[in-house]
User: What shape does this take?
Amino acid sequence: MDFLGIKLDGRVVLAPMAGVTDSPFRILARRWGAAMVYTELASSEAMIRDSARTRKLMEFLPEERPVGIQIFGANPEAMAVAAAEAESLNPDLLDINFGCPAKKVVRGGSGAAVLQDLDLLRRIVARVTGRVGLPVTVKIRSGWDSESIVAVEAARIAEGEGARAVTVHARTRAMGFGGSADWDMIRRVRESVGIPVIGNGDVREPADAAGMLDKTGCDLVMIGRAALGRPWLLGAAQHYIDSGETKDEPSNEERVRVCLEHYDLALRLNGERRAVLEMRKHIGWYLKGMPGASRVKQAVFHETDPGRVRKMLGEYRDGLNEKKGFIN
Ligand SMILES: Cc1cc2nc3c(=O)[nH]c(=O)nc-3n(C[C@H](O)[C@H](O)[C@H](O)COP(=O)(O)O)c2cc1C
Assistant: This one.
């Protein structure tokens, strides 16, 4: 399908997740059927202070396309500078984060805090769309808290200033990641703007993705947490949307195989030191609920040599295959 002039091969996209959706994970998600991926949020202020490091966060490989770069900040001019920097990397779109609830982000007036000042939101979107030729999109929450639900107004303002699509994570900032997403808010935004809407929040299983499209009329579905240790979920969700059928989940052995594939990508792209540390959390997610997983995780979490980690995972996988296995 066509989305803002970008050719997408489905309607299910991977959510940007700081500390998670780096290049290795994005590549894996695309291999497993994500229609589009996003970089982790990058600070526009940091771009001015330490541009090399922030630029690194925005970089991606050709095989990740279509890919969006996401930036955040509270200063319209700094946002325009960051947007221009992002544009020089030639992503498929540029997304502005107006949803991050993290204290260190909202304290500086950025992320979800901008939802408390819709005039600032207007100025940020205007400056960014005025600066770059790329499609600019915004990602919002429902509002700051239940007393200030502004998604419809924020989306309309963004549209008026040239945003080409809006992602709605249907929670307030006050909810953090708790409670449940209010999909009706996505429907209301969908009915209030002419630009495409990406629905987000609590899509956990393939059928949820189809349910969200159905109930809200949104154009694309974005999946975050449910894809941790489960990158195949995106393709499975697309398959469900296309056919109404649920694919079998990969076997435990296959899951470890994907984990090893992820490990190798991380080693190759992030370097040994970073890969060993960062892959620990991913290994925890991949192995969640598997027989004997806690023992392997304990061992892996104390190991700093990637060769030995790979060996442990390989042995664990082979043990899963033999009936006697690795049972605790
Ligand atoms: C670990 C983590 C990091 C996140 N980082 C970002 C981010 O960098 N940018 C962003 O827009 N949203 C971020 N989010 C929010 C997700 O993109 C998404 O909106 C949210 O998790 C709700 O979707 P889900 O219910 O499918 O997880 C993050 C979420 C998590 C769990």
Notes: Residues 65 and 228 are 20 Å apart (CA to CA). DSSP finds 14 helices and eleven strands in the chain.
